[in-house]
Amino acid sequence: MKKPFVPGAPFQVVWNITNACNLKCAHCYEDAGKRSSNELTNQEIIRGLEIISKASATSIAFSGGEPTSNPHITDYIKLTKELGMYPAMATNGYKLSKQSKLNKFVDAGLEFVQISIDGLNLETHDSFRGVEGSWDKAIQAVENSVDADLFVEVATTVTTHNIDEIPDIIEFIRDIGAHWFMIYNFIPTGNGTNISEMDISPKNRFELLKSAYNENMNGNMQVLSTAPQYAPVAESLQTDSSVIPTHFYNPQYKNPQLTQLAEFVGGCGAGRFYMGIEPNRDLYPCVFFPRTEELKLGNLMNDDFDQIWKENNLLVDLRNKDLLQDNCGSCESKNICGGCRARAYTYFNDVQAPDPGCIKNEGKWNELKNKLPNFQETHNGSLFINLEGK
Ligand code: SF4
Ligand code: SF4
């Protein structure tokens, strides 16, 4: 069988249902804020859900912007379930801090909720999210969601702003009773381009992933990461853990099958497990891909979704790990990792370029740094650009 595996339809469609958002997050990949004038109508979204269901996608994750800003969101969740798909939602949690509001989502059939936390306390979180009180609301939403028996994932995008807090955040979230803690890889796209200097160094990412993996031995909450390097890091640790470290799927399997299964699942899911939909109906391999014409796959309403999945040239190329360049191309871990293709494109304008976040690509990271004038690296690996005297 060809590795990694490619299903006949995306496993998860992440649908940025609206550009509207009540927060102003520094790292937002969508550069969200106001509702865009070209967003799909209610009827078009309903038709879109039917199209995705007909193509046999397994799960839809509603995201945004802030999906709870859409007045019909609970109707879409209900319809997703009626169409036989698994409904999930990624939210900043602000509105779910009200139990009565959360109950509407539970009643509609929501099964999985991801709530984002950027810090251990309101100083770190609220300053990044741009709205006072957002940390309190997010934590309340996590507690409400646990109480409501939803499958709860707490997600933290790691930058130099919060990397030192991650161990304490994990402990704090574990105590609340969340099921997953997801370490989100920072990808400098959307608003994130303005804070690209906050990207963590390959060495710090490596250490972070190692300690994250070891956290799985400390309780029931699983600690996972969207960084595809998590799989090779976990493989190298070779513990007796039963966690397969991928960001969308982690069945319980014991070693020694871990490596075989990880190769089958296969790291970066762009082109293989995901499809991203924009509020205006454009399709991308993953929501973290920059919104360029070159990366656009087509249009949900006018193009043949099934045909795009099976035949689109970009998706076909993303499935072919032999096209990867430099160290990613010759890497023994390319079938279980492959590097984040969104990060590769963001930094090098090429989807097959090496992911500069990996310890094996430290040379590429250093080349990027050297292109910046008067750079200095701070203690936690961020880049400080000294413009004095310029
Ligand atoms: S490009 Fe790949 S690794 Fe990066 S966020 Fe998307 S699916 Fe994940
Ligand atoms: S070199 Fe590329 S494929 Fe290999 S571990 Fe690093 S990011 Fe993954």
In words, what does this structure look like?
Helix 7 crosses helix 8. The longest helix has 14 residues. It contains 14 helices and twelve strands. The termini are far apart. It has 390 residues and is of the alpha/beta class. The strands form two sheets. Strands 7-6-5-4-3-2-1-8-9-10 form a ten-stranded mixed β-sheet. Strands 11-12 form a two-stranded antiparallel sheet. The site of one iron/sulfur cluster has 16 residues, from helix 12.
Low-confidence stretches: 248-254, 384-390
Q: Which ligands, by name, code or SMILES, are bound?
A: iron/sulfur cluster
Rg over CA atoms: 20 Å
Estimate the helix proportion, in percent. 25-40%
Beta-strand residue percentage: 5-15%
Please summarize the sheet with the most strands: 10 strands, mixed
Structural class estimated from helices and strands:
alpha/beta
Mean pLDDT: 86
SS elements, strand count: 12
Please count the helical segments. Answer: 14
Distance between the termini: 57 Å
Strand order of the largest sheet: 7-6-5-4-3-2-1-8-9-10
Shape: globular
**Helices and strands, in N-to-C order?**
EHEHEHEHHEHEHEHHEEEHHHHHEE
How would you summarize what this structure contains?
The chain is an alpha/beta fold. The chain contains 14 helices and 12 strands. Residues 248-254 and 384-390 have low confidence and may be disordered.
Strand-helix topology:
Elements: E1 12-16, H1 42-54, E2 59-63, H2 73-82, E3 86-91, H3 99-108, E4 112-116, H4 122-129, H5 134-147, E5 151-158, H6 166-176, E6 180-185, H7 202-215, E7 222-225, H8 230-237, H9 257-265, E8 274-277, E9 282-284, E10 298-299, H10 305-311, H11 313-319, H12 326-330, H13 341-348, H14 362-370, E11 375-377, E12 383-385
Parallel strand pairs: 1-2, 1-8, 2-3, 3-4, 4-5, 5-6, 6-7
Antiparallel strand pairs: 8-9, 9-10, 11-12
The structure holds iron/sulfur cluster (2 copies).
